[in-house]
Amino acid sequence: MLDTVREVHTPEGVALRLPVAGPLPRAVAWGIDFGIRMSLLSACSMLLGVLGSAGMGLYLICLFAVVWLYPILCEGLFDGQTPGKRVMHLRVLSIDGAPVGWLAACVRNLMRTVDMLPFGYACGIVSGLLDASGRRLGDVVAGTVVVHVEANRIEVVLPAEAPAVSLQPLQPAEQAAVVAFAERAGLLTTERRIELADLAEGITGARGTDGVQRLFGIANGLLGKR
């Protein structure tokens, strides 16, 4: 029932730690979205009620859109977040940490018909308890996971340095350390950057400012930047 962390490795060997969301925050997010959908349906009912039988047909179309298209469109258009998930600082990602795609968003939401069986999301709850990443059946089939995102997330921009290759083969932990250095360089003083870069002289072949720039280039190379 608790939140956990899922670690995935990119093709470049960089380890990503995804803070997987547990059932409670996901249930609260679902409740918020449910309230929004009921409000939308109530508004549609009042507006279309004056049209009689024709209004009923339009209401059924709105019902389908609100129940099924609402989560798919939100997750597809807004980076894996419905309004409820945004309030709870949650996001749907692919299992490898990549942004969720349209196909995955469709599959995970259409699979709710199975997760709800036999009642009260029983299948989804059991699946979440058995899966190491707390995924319901829809997430398992779609290859997605729901994670926490920072409330005030800061977009990390690596220094614009031409991609470079390390002078020595790097282990995954060493690759992660190089990328972390580049991501946090803006928070370090110039002296501290040089001090850390000098420790990596064996893979950069340089010291001082040149070593710092070389590390930036290696980080960009590891992340596949051009």
List the SSEs and their pairings:
Blueprint: E1 4-9, E2 15-20, H1 23-48, H2 53-77, H3 83-87, E3 90-94, H4 102-110, H5 112-115, H6 122-130, H7 137-142, E4 144-148, H8 172-184, H9 190-199, H10 201-204, H11 208-222
Antiparallel strand pairs: 1-2, 3-4
Helix pairs in contact: 1-2, 2-4, 8-11, 9-11
Describe this protein's structure:
The structure is a single chain. The chain is mainly α and 226 residues long. The chain has two domains: 145 residues, no CATH class; 51 residues, no CATH class. Helix content is 56%, strand content 10%. It is built from eleven helices and four strands. The longest helix is centred in the N-terminal third of the chain and has 26 residues. The protein is elongated and about 80 Å long. The model has no long low-confidence stretch (mean pLDDT 85).
Please outline the major beta sheet: 2 strands, antiparallel
Shape assignment? elongated
- Give the structural class: mainly alpha
Query: How many structurally independent domains?
Result: 2
Task: Write down the overall mean pLDDT.
Answer: 85
Order of helices and strands: EEHHHEHHHHEHHHH
Strand content: 5-15%
Give the CA-CA distance, first to last residue: 42 Å
Can you count the beta strands? 4
